[in-house]
């Protein structure tokens, strides 16, 4: 025992956790405390968190309104009993999400993660349409279970090729490296619609169940198609009743600034939406909101032991109230504009930045070999290490692992935006200096 305790945590981690469980940083950090938008590690170093625990901490850390609601639930003694019984806050949260969704006659099913939410959505759509054919976007990520890995369009995250669904991938999400990326918006949309029609004709038997899209591709490097693309797709889908599923796991809850749901920028209401991450502000909760007829298409029983449990829904309800009461969507728009302007300034002086993109507080820079579009994943490692040295945590991602992702808590302040830009400016300059 004494020996184990002397062994560094990273070595113990490697000994008992899977080899494919990726960790950030050459010298990985252990977070031991957090408050506001800052986290502190086991060495006492404090960081401004611009990845918010992969977008889970939408509001920030240690928010009294949320921890108070969780504590009050703990004080009842009911951490969890069973989702076979009525749970008041689960019903209230579902009512709120159904209303916010804009989906007519909407119903909500709670899960514990985004993966489970998407698995449920796939099962609903395939059952409703009696077809296992699914359309997804190239460069997408939808989760890490059997069906969701199958539809994910990014080899780095496709841990198995033995999917139960038949998937066809279409262009659209990742414009920077799309063959149509150089076209003006309207022509780009038209080219993607043509590609969709061709895929429907050539790789499916026509009776497709659904199309699933991320309004902004999260793991794929915050790749953002022009507004309206998914509205144009929906017109094609509607010709044969193909359902549209919007995966709002990263883009939901106002993060994109201009809309509460990412898909709304496309002028369309989907048939199904999935959500997770930010809703719980750190608690494990996800779910599906869908048209009532789609949600009710199962005839056999189906339940989640923990999905919608009293603790998670008490916390999530408080988090959602906080988000709405404090107009965090409005703040995401304002702070996002300031951050985006600063990123464009950094890009102007640094040819290693090939693209600045995203919306609201979901912004990214793609790093390339100067003067080319060649992805530079080593530069992203440098930026990650350098920002850490400057007290800032950011995310990495993209098909080629060369994208720096910024998604801070939506309570962010102007001073924090400027602080982060300062750290990012130094980090990107360090790439040019070959550090
Ligand atoms: N969909 C999207 C768009 C995601 O970004 C993620 C997680 N990165 C998931 C689904 C899966 O969510 P979870 O990790 O909670 O299972």
Automatic annotation (TrEMBL):
Belongs to the class-III pyridoxal-phosphate-dependent aminotransferase family. It holds the Pfam family Aminotran_3. The keyword Isomerase does not apply. This is alanine--glyoxylate transaminase. The keyword Glycoprotein does not apply. PANTHER family: ALANINE--GLYOXYLATE AMINOTRANSFERASE 2, MITOCHONDRIAL (PTHR45688:SF3), PTHR45688. Keywords: Aminotransferase, Pyridoxal phosphate, Transferase. SUPFAM superfamilies: PLP-dependent transferases (SSF53383). It is an enzyme of class 2 (transferase). One of its GO terms (molecular function) is pyridoxal phosphate binding. Its EC number is 2.6.1.44. Its cofactor is pyridoxal 5'-phosphate. CDD domains: OAT_like. Homotetramer.
């Amino acid at each position: 025992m004494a020996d184990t305790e002397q062994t560094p945590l990273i070595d113990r981690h490697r000994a008992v956790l899977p080899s494919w469980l990726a960790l950030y940083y050459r010298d990985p950090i252990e977070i031991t405390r957090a408050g506001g938008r800052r986290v502190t590690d086991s060495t006492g170093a404090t960081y401004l968190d611009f990845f918010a625990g992969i977008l889970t901490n939408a509001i920030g850390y240690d928010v009294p309104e949320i921890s108070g609601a969780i504590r009050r639930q703990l004080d009842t003694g009911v951490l969890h009993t069973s989702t076979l019984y009525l749970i008041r806050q689960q019903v209230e949260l579902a009512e709120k999400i159904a209303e916010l969704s804009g989906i007519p006659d909407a119903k909500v099913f709670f899960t514990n993660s985004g993966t489970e939410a998407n698995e449920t959505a796939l099962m609903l759509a395939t059952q409703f349409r009696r077809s296992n054919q699914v359309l997804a976007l190239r460069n997408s990520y939808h989760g890490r279970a059997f069906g969701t890995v199958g539809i994910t369009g990014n080899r780095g995250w496709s841990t198995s090729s033995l999917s139960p669904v038949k998937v066809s991938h279409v262009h659209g999400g990742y414009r920077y490296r799309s063959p149509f990326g150089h076209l003006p918006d309207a022509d780009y949309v038209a080219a993607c619609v043509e590609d969709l029609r061709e895929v429907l004709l050539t790789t499916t038997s026509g009776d497709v169940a659904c199309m699933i899209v991320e309004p902004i591709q999260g793991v794929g490097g915050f790749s953002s198609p022009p507004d309206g693309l998914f509205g144009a797709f929906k017109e094609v889908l509607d010709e044969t009743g193909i359902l549209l599923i919007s995966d709002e796991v990263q883009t939901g809850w106002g993060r994109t600034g201009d809309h509460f749901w990412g898909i709304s920028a496309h002028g369309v209401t989907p048939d199904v939406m999935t959500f997770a991450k930010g809703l719980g502000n750190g608690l494990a909760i996800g779910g599906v909101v869908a048209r009532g007829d789609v949600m009710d298409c199962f005839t056999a029983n189906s339940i989640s032991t923990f999905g919608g449990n009293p603790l998670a829904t008490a916390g999530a309800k408080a988090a959602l109230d906080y988000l709405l009461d404090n107009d965090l969507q409005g703040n995401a728009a304002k702070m996002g504009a300031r951050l985006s302007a600063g990123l464009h300034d950094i890009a102007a002086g640094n040819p290693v930045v090939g693209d600045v993109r995203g919306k609201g507080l979901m912004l990214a820079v793609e790093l390339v070999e100067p003067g080319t579009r060649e992805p530079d994943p080593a530069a992203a490692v440098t930026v990650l290490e350098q920002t850490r040295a400057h007290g800032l945590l950011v995310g990495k991602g993209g098909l080629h692992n060369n994208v720096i992702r910024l998604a801070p808590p939506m309570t962010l302040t102007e001073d924090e935006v400027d602080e982060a830009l300062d750290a990012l400016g130094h980090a990107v300059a360090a790439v040019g200096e070959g550090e």
